[in-house]
Amino acid sequence: REIATQGDGFFAVFGSPRSCAAAVVSMQQALAARRWAGNEPVRVRMGVHAGEATETTTGLVGYDIHRTARVAAVAHGGQVLLSSTAAELVRDTLPETARLRDLGLHRLKDLSRPEHIFQLEAAGLQSEFPPLRSLDNPALANNLPAQSSRFIGREHELDELRPLVESHRVVTLTGAGGSGKTRLALQVAAELLDGSGDGVWLVELAGVSDEDAVAPGIAETLNVAVQPGRPVLEFLVDALLPQRILILLDNCEHVIGACAKVVDALVRRCPQVHLLTTSREPLGIAGEAIYRVPSLSLPHLEEEEGASQCDAVTLFLDRAADQGARIAMDSDSLSLILSICRRLDGMPLAIELAAARLRSLSLADLSDRLHQRFRLLTGGSRSALPRQQTLRATVDWSYSLLNDAEQAVLRRLAVFVEGFDLQAAEMVTSLADIEVFDITDLVSSLVDKSLVVADPTADGLRYRLLETIRQFAAERMVESGAQEASTVAAAHRDYFLALAEEAAPQTIGPHQSRWFERLRMESANLRRAFEYAVETPGDTELVLRFARALRYFWWVHDRGRPVIDSLIEAVERPESENDPALLVDALVTLALCVRTYDNALARRTASRAAAIARQIEDLSHLVDALWIGCAVTCFGGDLEQGRRLGAEAVERARQLGDDFRLASALGMYLLGAQLSSSVGEEGYDELLAEAVERARRAGALFLTQVLMNNAASATLRFGDVALARAQLEEAERTRVDVGGGINSVDVNFAWVLRLEGDLDGAAVRLQRTLRAARRAGERSGMAYAILGFACLSGDRGDWESSAQLHGAASELFDTVGELCQEPESGYRVESTTLGIAYLGEVQWQRLFAQGRTLEYQQVLSLAGSP
Predict the structure, then answer these.
(1) CA gap 707, 710 in Å, rounded
(2) Most buried among 296, 715, 726, 786, by the most CB within 10 A?
(3) How many angstroms separate the CA atoms of 377 and 350, rounded?
(4) Is the pLDDT of residue 408 over 90?
C-alpha cells in the first residue's frame, strides 16, 4: 500500500520460492486493480532476484540487493522482472495461472555482465510492454561500454551526483589517479539514461595527446560531420544546439585547457547540453560544479562493526573472488583485509591491484609486503590503459603533467607525516629555488590536481598526501639527490622543534588544552622530526631540546617506546653534558615517561638529574628532579626515601614561588604519604587542598586531574566510595578538557563501580584501560587492568580464570619493577584469599604459575576483553 501511493518503488520478499512467487503475483494483481484519483491504474515496476543480504540498522545491504534494484530499474510500470537466478528457483513452483516469458540477455545499468531477464505473466496482469529500459534498448541512445567487473558500493556518492548532474550544466569529478573517477562517472551516466532526449555519450580523451584534437575527438564520437575551412568547435556547437544530451568527457587533465574551452562554449551556446567530466583538477570555468571523489568507505580504527560490508572490503573480496582466491572470512582475515585497505587509502585501483596479487600470495603475505607497494601492485587488467595497469604508472602519469615547481613541492611534501598546514609547507618546501610566497599557489594547484588533499578544520584547511602519493613523492625525493632530501628533512626538523618550544610554556598553563590539541594534531610530524635529530650526528643538543619542550605532551599523550629508547641513548652521549641544565631537563622528561616501562631506570635517571641540578645550583631544575624522583622512588617501594625527596621538593618549590612546581611537589609528597599509609595524618587534607588550588591557579588542568585521581585512590582505602566517585568525576571532567589523561582514572573508577556492584560497568572501564595501555606499551597500566579483571572473575565465581589473571598481573608488576599499591594490593589479597579457599592452595598456585606465562592474547581471552 505504501509503494502504491508512490507509484514506483523497490521491495524485498523473504520466504520459500513458491511463497515468494505467489506473493509477487498477488501484490501486482492487487496494485493493478487500484486506481489513482484520476482513474489511472497504479503501475509499479518490480524486480525479483535471489541472493545474500545483510540487515543493518539502516536497512539491507549487499551486492545482491543492488543487483535486484538494477533488475527493477529496467522494468516498466506494472511489469515484474526476474533474474535468471530467481527464475530458476521459482520456475517449477509458480501458481497455475502464472508463467515466465524469456526476454533474453540485457545489459543492466551497472554496466557489468549481461543478465538473463524473465517477465512474470499471470491472469489480471498486463503482459505487453515496450522494450526493456536496458542499455541494449535502441531507444536509450548511448555508447557506454560494458565493464568486465561489477560496480561496488558508492551509494552515497551516487545519491549526491545524480541530482547534481541534473541541476548543473557541467560537473567535474576530481580525484587522485586510481580513485575511481571514471567508473563512478560511467555509473552516474548509466543511471541517468532514461530514454528521453538524445542519450548519453562517452568521449574518452586518454589517447588524445594534442589539445587541438579535443573538439574533433568529441565530434567524431558524436558523429558530427565537419568540413575543412571552419573550426570544428563551430560545427559541434551547431550540431548540439537543439539536442538534449549528456556528454561524459573522461580524462581531461592532460588537455585541460582545450577541454575548458570546448565545455565553456557548449555550456554557453547549447542550453540543453549537460557535461560530466573527470579530471585531476577542475576545468576552472563559470558554472562548474566540482565533486571530489573520496576513497572507498572504511570504518574508523575503533569501529569495526559491519566492516565486512564497507565498500573497500567488499571491493577487495569481489576482486579476490575474480582471481579464484578463497578467503575464509573469520575475524583474523577481516582484520588483515581492513589493514590492507587502510594502507592503500581505500583507493579502488590500488585495492584491485592488491587483490590481483592473491593469485600468488596469501592474505598474510600480501599484508606483509605492502611496504613495497609500487613493486607489488602490478599486473592488473591487460585491457586497461597503460597508465592504469600498475599503481606506479597511474601516479607517474599525474606527476609527469606537473611543472618543475609543482614537482619540487610535491616531492618535498613527502617529508610530512599524516598532514600539515600551509605555514609548515611554506617553511619546509621553500628552498632557494622557490619563494615562500609562491607556496600557497603551488599547494593550491596540487590540491586542484588531486595530488594533495585539503581537509577543512576548525582552524582552517589542513593538507595531506594519500599514502600512495606520499610514497611515490618520497621516491622522487631520493632520485632528486641527497642534498635536497637532507635540506628538506632539516627544515622539517627545525620547524617542528620551533613549534614544540613555542608550545612548551603553554602546556602547563591555562591554555594547555588548546596547545595539547595543536601538538596532538602534529604528533606524527613531531616524532619524525625528533627521529631525524636522533639519526643525525652532532644533533644531540636538538634531541635534548625536543625532550625538554615536549615533556608534558609526552606525559599526557604520546610517550611511545621508540621515542623513549632514542632519548635513553641520547642522554648517554658525551656531548649531552655540554649544557648541564638542558641535560637535567631531558633526564626529568625521561624519568617521567619511562616510569611505566622500567621503574628502576626511572629512579636512576631522576637521581642523576638531581645530582646535576645540585652541582649547577639551579633551584627550578632541582625541584623538577626531586618531585619526579619522589614519585618513582615511592612506586619502587622505598617509601621512606621517596617521602624525603618529596619533602625537599616542597620546601624548595616554596622558595621559588612557582605555583605549578609547588603543586607538582605537593602532589608527589602526598602520593608518598598515601603509599606509606599516612593519609590520615594531620595536615594531609590541607596540603591536598593547597595542591589543587595551586594547580588551578596555574591553569594546569592535567595536574589537577592527577591530584584528584590520587586523592580518590587514597579515599578508596578508607572505603568512602561516594567521595571517591566525586573526586574521580572531577578528574574525568578535567580529562575531557585536556583531551587526554592517565589510565589510572579508569582503573580507580572500575574499583568504585565494583564496590557499587556494577561488575559490567567495571569491566568496560578496565577494557578501555587495557586497550590504551597496550597501545602505549604501558606495562604498569596493563598490570592494574589485568588485576582488576582477576578480581572481577572471582566476583563472578570463575576462580580458575581469576587465579591465572592474578598470575599474569603479578608477572607484569615484576617486569616493570613496581609494587602493587593500595588500595589494589588490598583487593588482590582479598581476592586471592577467597580463591585459595575455593580451589585449594595447590590448584591455585598451579593456575597462578600458568598465568605468569600467558601470552597477551590469552590474557585478553580470559579477561573477556575485545
Answers:
(1) 5
(2) 786
(3) 7
(4) yes
Residue pair 218/205 in contact (Cβ under 8 Å)? The answer is no
Strand partners, 15: none
Look up residue 187 and give its amino acid: Q
pLDDT digits (tens, 9 = 90+) for 211-260: 888 999 999 888 887 777 789 999 999 999 989 999 999 989 889 999 99
82 φ, ψ (degrees, to nearest 5): -125, 140
Average pLDDT on 436-444 reads: 94
Residues 6+ apart with CB under 8 A from 155: 66
C-alpha 391/C-alpha 286 separation (Å) is 34
- 142 backbone dihedrals φ, ψ, rounded to 5°: -170, 165
Position 5 scores a pLDDT of 37
Q: Which three cell numbers stand for residue 428?
A: 619546509
Interacting residues of 487 by C-beta distance below 8 A, sequence separation 6+: 431
Name the DSSP class of 295. Answer: P
Q: Could you give the angle at the alpha carbon of 860 between the alpha carbons of 858 and 861, nearest 5°? A: 65
Distance CA 665, CA 647 (A): 8
* Helix 155-167, helix 181-192: angle, nearest 10: 60
At 27, is the pLDDT very low, low, confident or very high (cuts 50, 70, 90)?
Answer: confident
Reference 299, options 290, 312, 289; nearest CA is 312
Task: Give me the helix-helix angle, 232-240 and 214-221, nearest 10°.
Answer: 40
* Cβ contact 711:727 at 8 Å: yes
CB crowding 183-193: b at 16 or more within 10 Å, else e: bbbbbbbbbbb
Nearest CA among 175, 202, 204 for reference residue 188: 202
pLDDT of residue 469: 81
With vertex at residue 560, the alpha carbon angle to CA 546 and CA 828, rounded to the nearest 5 degrees, is 130
Pairing of strands 98-106, 115-122: antiparallel
- Alpha-carbon distance values, 80 to 21, 66, 104 (Å): 11, 17, 15
DSSP 428-453: HH--TTS-GGGHHHHHHHHHHTTSSE
Element (H, E) at 398: helix 391-400
Q: What gap in Å lies between CA 735 and CA 512, rounded to an integer? A: 12
CB atoms within 10 A of CB 119: 20
Measured CA to CA, the distance from residue 221 to residue 204 in angstroms comes to 9
- The pLDDT tens digits for 512-557 are 888 988 998 898 899 899 999 999 988 999 999 999 999 988 887 7
551: nearest Cα among 491, 486, 619, 624: 624
> Is the Cβ–Cβ distance between 108 and 81 less than 8 Å?
no
Q: Can you tell me which residue has the cell 642534498?
A: 483
CB–CB of 785/769 below 8 Å? yes
Instruction: Decide: 469 and 395 in contact? Cβ < 8 Å.
Output: yes
Q: What's the CA gap between 383 and 361, in Å, rounded?
A: 23
Tell whether the model's pLDDT for residue 776 goes beyond 70: no
What is the residue-averaged pLDDT of the chain? 84
* Residue bearing the bigger pLDDT, 403 or 561: 403
Contact 538, 726 (CB under 8 A): no
Contact indicator for 415, 428 with CB cutoff of 8 Å? yes
Cα–Cα distance, 290 to 284 (Å, whole number): 9
Distances (CA, A) of 434 to 407, 430, 431, 488: 12, 5, 6, 13
Nearest CA to 368 among 327, 390, 408, 340?
340
**Residue 321 host element (H or E):** helix 311-322
- CA angle (322 as vertex; 321, 323 as ends), nearest 5: 85
C-alpha span between 398 and 401 (Å, rounded): 6
Please write the tens of the pLDDT for every residue from 284-341: 999 999 999 998 888 876 555 667 778 899 899 888 888 788 788 788 888 889 988 8
CA torsion 203-207-212-217 (nearest 10°) is -30
Model confidence at 842, in pLDDT bands (50, 70, 90)? Answer: very high
- Mean pLDDT highest for which of 88-102, 112-126, 751-765? 751-765
